[in-house]
Design goal:
This protein is mostly helical. Helix content is 76%, strand content 0%. It has four helices and no strands. It is globular, with a radius of gyration of 15 Å.
Length: 119
């Protein structure tokens, strides 16, 4: 698990760095660094359960708020969200944010499950 946590820590730090040119960078930089911190702590078998639950709850709250926009994108036939790096239409940015939150939730749950295995 240490290797997976090292990779996740590095990836989420990189995710945070590339958010610096986003229209709303700070929430995403903070969120991705938060997930990187949780993965970094997991490298050393340090799991802060309350912090993990808080992160999952926060991401889930934001995910639910973006669900209508995500469903709208699906109903449009899922047009490409990767053709350009610029989000020229709203569904591109909102869908990317939805998927980013889903990835954060998956990683936080992965880390949370490690805490159960290593009490």
């Amino acid at each position: 698990m240490k290797i997976a946590n090292i990779i996740l820590t590095i990836l989420f730090i990189l995710f945070a760095v590339v958010q610096l040119n986003d229209p709303d960078p700070w929430i995403w930089v903070i969120l991705y660094l938060y997930v990187a911190l949780m993965a970094g702590l997991a490298i050393f078998d340090r799991h802060i359960n309350n912090a993990l639950w808080f992160g999952i709850a926060f991401c889930l709250f934001k995910l639910i708020r973006l669900l209508p926009d995500f469903m709208n994108w699906v109903q449009q036939g899922m047009p490409s969200i990767v053709e350009t790096m610029k989000a020229e239409v709203p569904h591109v940015e909102l869908t990317r944010e939805f998927l980013g939150l889903a990835i954060c939730i998956a990683v936080l749950i992965f880390i949370k499950n490690q805490a159960k295995q290593n009490p």
